[in-house]
Amino acid sequence: MIVECGNCGARNRVDEGAARERQPVCGQCGAPLEVKQGASGGATKPLTVTDGTFQRDVLQAGSIPVLLDCWAAWCGPCRMIAPILEQLAAESNGRYLIAKLDVDTNPMTASRFGIQSIPTLLIFKNGALVDRMVGLQSKQAIAQRLESLRG
Ligand SMILES: [Zn+2]
Hints:
This protein is α/β, with parallel strands linked by helices.
């Protein structure tokens, strides 16, 4: 099976049997890989967004708040915030969407929103930017922002 690394986005080939015995790690960055049991995971992992899919996946998501994590592989705080966003995505239950954008490979979207430092968390709703958080955030702080934008 192919597992996309939640940290760097690299696609890793994982032996499902071996994964049950031992935690598989990403071949590119060494982060632990989350291996889903069962095929239909739903939107329980952060969605990888690119310059090409930003319009569709973020701006056209409608009334559901979309949190876009603007990150890069070389950024230490980004690696610290990644597991928090994984947890929020797993707990989203359709109330919000967690997405990630690599600013190095997607400069158009990054410059469009004036990303100066990373991690920057952008929150969109109804096709508009409604909130922005710069730097490392606690899970609780992010969850509170998302909850305040519901409805
Ligand atoms: Zn990785």
